[in-house]
Design a protein that fits this description.
The chain is mainly alpha-helical and 330 residues long. Helices cover 52% and strands 5% of the residues. It has 3 domains: 85 residues, Orthogonal Bundle (Endonuclease Iii, domain 2); 101 residues, Orthogonal Bundle (Endonuclease III, domain 1), CATH 1.10.340.30; 88 residues, Arc Repressor Mutant, subunit A. The chain is built from 14 helices and 4 strands. A 4-stranded antiparallel sheet has the order 1-4-2-3. It is elongated and about 70 Å long. Bound molecules: iron/sulfur cluster.
């Protein structure tokens, strides 16, 4: 039972739901994007593509996915690989933690499920790197389970389609969108419906300047031709200018360290070399920042830092940077 929502727009009734499904599915039959992870009967490759697609452009995933599947053709092959090999194969994708989470998930599936990717979203959600969306996507696209999906594109389409949003940046709360996704999910064509909503959000109902005049839902949509750009750029709660300059670079520097080690001889280098690569200035603040970056990378299992072949407490280390050896994890 899906509880009714508190809104000036009532939930779409049965006949409206049918109309919406029909229009979206017809549009999808004619305009769908051709993507290699669609209509594929291989849950493992669906899982890999879903991890890759998190925060990465489709064009980049199109480029990397075939190479990844050639290198690690199935779950056991990925589970057996070293972390270093996984990080090397992830080169160019960014957000390296996803690679290690994918690797850890493969190892859990081999250890706990005999190498068979579960189809139960509750089990999937317990695996490393799986949130609700990824668990539902893998179960729906990999195992043809009838499950709703909400990601950034679907959330935008369902928000605008069910409520007069007025501003391009306004969205319904995430929990409300999951409820609507469940309500609107067709009984049979759920696979195409989920794919279609993602395509609609990516190509027509875009974040900026949605193309309502080309949208199959314009006659049904309370937001059609009414969305205006949000001219006031607000900072998210708690984000200050100080945070922005301190936090954003750390993520970028982490990526640079891993990228440098991918290309370094033996995938190792000295901390002093990294210091020169990352920072123009040679100061105490930069040294502390480098040690902080290395400590978080070591905590996440991406690098190993040693001094005279022994582990060191990186964050509080007072030894000269030239004596610290940093290696991509093995
Ligand atoms: S009519 Fe416009 S706002 Fe409504 S779903 Fe289509 S593109 Fe989005």
């Amino acid at each position: 039972m899906i509880p009714a929502r508190d809104s000036e727009y009532p939930d779409p009734d049965l006949s409206r739901r049918r109309v919406l499904r029909q229009r979206v599915l017809r549009w999808y039959a004619r305009h769908r994007r051709v993507l290699p992870w669609r209509d594929v009967d291989n849950p493992y490759s669906i899982m890999v593509s879903e991890f890759m697609l998190q925060q990465t452009q489709v064009s980049r995933v199109l480029d990397h996915l075939p190479r990844w599947l050639e290198r690690f053709p199935d779950l056991p092959a990925l589970a057996r690989a070293s972390r270093r090999d996984v990080l090397l194969a992830w080169s160019g994708m960014g957000y390296n933690r996803r690679a290690l989470q994918l690797h850890a998930a493969a190892q859990s599936i081999v250890a706990e499920f005999g190498g068979v990717l579960p189809s139960d979203p509750a089990l999937l959600q317990q695996l490393p790197g799986f949130g609700r969306y990824t668990a539902h996507a893998v179960a729906c696209f990999g195992h043809r389970r009838r499950l709703p999906l909400v990601e950034v594109n679907i959330r935008r389409v369902l928000s605008r389609l069910t409520t007069d949003m007025q501003s391009e940046t306004r969205l319904l709360p995430e929990a409300e969108t999951w409820r609507l996704a469940e309500l609107l999910l067709p009984p049979r064509a759920f696979y195409d419906w989920n794919q279609a909503l993602m395509d609609l959000g990516a190509t027509i109902c875009t974040a900026r300047a949605p193309k309502c005049d080309r949208c199959p839902l314009q006659a049904e949509c309370p937001s059609a031709h009414r969305l205006v750009p949000d001219t006031i750029r607000r900072s998210p709660a708690g984000v200050t200018a100080y945070n922005l300059v301190r936090e954003v670079p750390r993520r970028i520097y982490r990526g640079r360290v891993v990228e440098f080690l991918r290309g370094a001889e033996g995938h190792c280098t000295s901390a002093s070399r990294l210091h020169r690569v990352l920072f123009d200035i040679d100061g105490e603040e930069e040294r502390a920042r480098l040690l902080d970056i290395l400590a978080t990378l070591e905590r996440d299992g991406m690098v190993r830092v040693t001094r005279r072949k022994k582990p060191v407490e990186v964050r509080n280390c007072v030894a000269p940077l030239a004596e610290l050896r940093v290696c991509l994890t093995e």
